[in-house]
Amino acid sequence: MKEMKKKMTKKEFDYQIDRNSFKEKNVKSKKFLVVFDGFKFSESALEYAIQLSKEADAFLVGVFLDEFIYRTYSVAQILTSYKNGEELIKELDEKDKEKRDESVRKFEKVCGQASINYSFHRNVGVAIQELKQESIFADLIVINDSETFNRLDENTPPRFIKELLADVQCPVLIVPDKFKPIDKITLLYDGAPSSVFAIKMFSYLFSYLQDVPIDVLTIIEKDIIAPQLPGTILMTDFLGLRFSNFTSKLLKGNAEEMIISHLLAGGENQFVVLGAYRRSGFSRWLKPSMADTLMIGLDLPLFIAHD
After folding, report:
1. Which of 75, 168, 183, 307 could form a disulfide with 269 if both were Cys (CB 3.0 to 4.6 A apart)?
2. Which of 193, 202, 194 is nearest to 172 (CA)?
3. CATH topology of domain 184-304
4. How far apart are CA 37 and CA 150, in angstroms?
5. Tens digit of pLDDT for each residue in 178-211?
6. Helix H or strand E encompassing 196
């Protein structure tokens, strides 16, 4: 019945465009999201996303979180400092819009030059909630490690990243400000299911990296006379089915100190894989402080997956 038809909203229309583009460009088996603040466009996030999407044969979606209350200026300050505050706000809003529009154009241009299949969303709702919702239907999120989605400077990791990692529904790749080719991969493994799950997800998404040199790093903190890799036989079989070039390294000492030291000595072109970020995790390695420590102490891409 005509009277029962609901008028299509702007957001629903955007998604309809995306569905059509999927059909036109041949549907890919994976959907990667790369997240942008239109005011502070991350070149490195785009470079990582394009390279990984191309190699993994994934469809790339640019997610522009244009939260309606987020501006480059303070509305309250303008209204209290200028007589013509409302007119000035209109001018500044127009400049903000143009800056965001330019970021979208840049994304489209670079993706077109890279000859990858892509689309984009511009979400005006609450940024963190919009991204969490998108994550339910994605295979990977790529985001810069310093994204705040506000005008304030924050310590690393910023609140937005911490809140995202605490409740995201797909793996997340946290990337530094500078793109670096991937020459080596380090898998952090402590025997917990969450660390195995992260390795599984990594192997599913990036099977083309199976020949890259891989370190499987385990730290034993307790004073054990003859320490062994947790689940040695099963884990060796598990890794052997997925990677052709891996070595297992078992070290003793403080987990945070040993991991940072090992990774710093391994060079700049590394890719680090670790498990759950949730506070309820039982592993000492994979509680929030470990992921936070890695973001603070390293300038490397971090692949983080929930169980």
Report:
1. 183
2. 202
3. Rossmann fold (3.40.50)
4. 9
5. 999 999 999 999 888 889 999 999 999 999 988 8
6. helix 193-205
